[in-house]
Amino acid sequence: MNKRTFVSLMFCFVGAVASYGQNENENDYGVNEANTKFSFQNGILGGDTDYDYFSLKDHEDVSGVPLGGIGVGNINLAPSGQFTRIGINNIHTPIKRSESSFFSLWMRKGNEKKAVRLVRDTKKQYGMEGVKHTQYKGLFPTVQLSYADNNLSVSPVIRAYSGLVPHNVKDSSLPVVWFEVDLFSQENMEAALAFSWEDFIGLFNDPNSLRGFDNGQLLSEGRASLNNGENWALREKAETFVEPYKQGTLTGLMQCVADSLQPRKLTFQNYVNKVIVAVEGEKNVSYLPACGKTSDAWSQFIANGEFAPQNSKTLLTKQGQSSSASVLAVKTTLKAGEKKTIRFMLAWYAPELHIDEAAAPIGSYWPCGADYNKYYHNYFKDIESLVGYVAANRQRIIQQTLEWQKPILESTLPDWYKFKLINSGYVIYTNMVLTKGGDVMVNEGAMGGFGGTMDQRLSAHPFYQKFFTQLDRSEMDIFADSMDPEGYILHFIGHYYVGMGSEGGRVPTEKGWMLDNASGWIIQLVKDYEQTGDMQYLKKHLAGVKRAMKFLYSRIPAGSTIPIGPTTYDDFTHPPLYSYYAGVWLTTLKAYEAIGKSIGDAKMVEQAQKQFVVSQKEAIDKLWNGRFFAYGCEPDGSKRLDNVLFTGQLAGQFLSRYCGWGDVYPMDIVKASIISQCKISLSKTADYYANKVWDINLGRGIDNRGSQCWPFYLESYTALTGMQAGFYADAMDIMKHIQLVHLRKGWTWTQNLWNPSDVTYMTAPVTWFSTDVLAGAGINVLQKELRLAPVITDDNLVSVPLYYPNFWGVVTADPQTKSLKLKITKKYGKDKISFTKIISEPAGLPTTEKRQIEIKEFVVDEGKVLDLSQYWDQIVDNRLESPILPNADKHDFRYVMK
């Protein structure tokens, strides 16, 4: 199924749900239809597994680490040295690559001279060859790119970075990239470094006309297709100029538009009108202001390492013509054994938009919700003030950015995991929309521009919530504010090419519900409250929670105790009583019970507990077949699909245990389900990249073509659930191979949900659940409760970082000395956080066997250490299972009778 078909299916699915049960004797819930469509994509999965993750050699370059900021656009510096996915204007459909943006190195010793582009390719451009080899260390949002084995007399290393400072939105939403280039020579040499940057100003998606745009709701009357900006053409290239730029110690060039940019339809794109390329603290600087793709103007640089003096404003690109580029060059002398660092800055700026509501045509902007401006507009009125701030604060910003990476890199976790965890946060640059007013929406990825996707948010949110709680809550608040009068949480809260809601406004995506939208919102809300202790946040949304619960209860059919309706798994028809949502419903009830306990509402607690008992019994009675939960059945339990195995069947189990609300299913059932998934589908699939829907009779997956695996859900609802149940080795293996599938093709920073391809899908940060799972950790601030039960697999010391909204810590466990400590490495805010009890829920044991240990009050403060060594035997008691996946056929199924 291609993406366009997928988008269309999204909108027709809600209507299709109404037909459930109308033709029960004929309905096989899509199984036969999917069987006729199934086609495996050969050649995508399987391959190399041995990577040096911190020095990827000659790696594929479809994507690279995104550099830029939250909500301001980004660029990728790919492992080849190529700039790819240039999204300074549009983060949703970035320009795939630039041949005119690159670094170039000139070297001369005596009469011997050479100039090369620092790009790994076989082309000759501008009179210069590329290089044959590169080594790439990409850890979002930082890059180190080196060039060994190229017979270069000067060894260059490019280090690039942007700011991502936890809980500091200002310094994390700056449209700036720094490039520090180290030059080293064993001999006395002359060298020059040039940075060429293509003119991207004015290149943005825009409809040909406003015909049909009427500010109507997107989920009706075909408006979604009309507003699909992926199908809009790029605007004709605007006329631009380039002029010398000087500010403080910065010297360079400024590209700028000739006339103000006037899109027909305002969107969340960045209407960049100025770009600065500058070098810091250098004197021997020369320019090539405008260089076309066929220009021979580089001949001066090739000959002498510099360009002819030019100090006037120059035409850069004529309107409607192919973009030119501007080049900045620095010439220097290197002594033998000396390292010289040259620091460049790339910055861009979009002016604040002021909408004349009286004159603006209908459909040219969304008039009912959030603004279209950038968060940096709160602080910087122009590019000069922005650049001045960044130059003055550069060192602090990068130091604070590296702070959150350091505990991961210093941990005892394997390199592939460190690489995966750090880099999975990249979508905060590539998918998050952040307005001047602080409103947030996360683009789903592909989908025509729809964003603020609550069902996916349930798995996507942990990175934002841990590091930028303010931004996470903004999106949650918009979902609450736009709740339908019926009481359901919407699927979307906005659209990249239309607009989004704001508290007190409207969203262009009204209507369109799924059960797990309401459940996901409630679960995230309660988890946030427990991790922050923010009672006001909980009370603010209490009425909304009750409305959402009332809606969910209204979806329970006669003769059942579990709501029926559409869910996130909407690309393949599922039965009404669905194994995925049955578990999520149980977790929703656990969250509702937690609210009742927090506010002292005994009736709420009693209602949740009673409903949980009967709903759990129904889920097991009707769906458990002895080895796993069947895909689903009719509300009365008939037509159970025992021949269909589904990887989302334990979603509720994962979420509830992760949040500290206990198991929703007996542990023996959970373990049997994991074993069945490993034996039946995962072990039969290359890279364990399993179809989410697997037909046992056919012995293969039956998902629609193009959507065979939802890897991010496989990671949370199978792998991490398995880790909770004691299948540590299998869980890590699944996570590693999900990464390998993307890594081999150069898709580390463009991971897709449906199939490996070039899409930045929002749910990649799901990996940020895993630090807590590895440590068996969680917190309830108001209950002064710390959950801790680190997974220990051998006699080696274990070090695992923990991140929560108000503090960070590192858990160290040494089995040889039975030393167990938690060191607080960071504390945010002035509110007191303390713990008086430790809850241990070891992996593999049911939470009914949890251990509670009363301790002397430990106050969380930076640098303090909580020593729990005396409780080692109570806390560290994992019941780990032997690995299933490597030899699945040699393991027996486990049968658990009801």
Written overview of the protein:
One of its GO terms (biological process) is carbohydrate metabolic process. InterPro entries: 6-hairpin_glycosidase_sf (IPR008928), 6hp_glycosidase-like_sf (IPR012341), GH116_catalytic (IPR006775), GH116_N (IPR024462), Non-lysos_glucosylceramidase (IPR052566). Pfam families: DUF608, Glyco_hydr_116N. With 898 residues, this protein is an alpha+beta fold. It folds into 4 domains: 1-37 and 571-738, Glycosyltransferase; 56-384, Distorted Sandwich (Beta-galactosidase, Chain A, domain 5), CATH 2.70.98; 454-459 and 473-554, no CATH class; 778-875, Maltose phosphorylase, domain 3. A hairpin with a 4-residue loop joins β30 and β31 (700-701). It starts with a helix and ends in a 23-residue tail after the last helix. Residues 1-25 have low confidence and may be disordered.
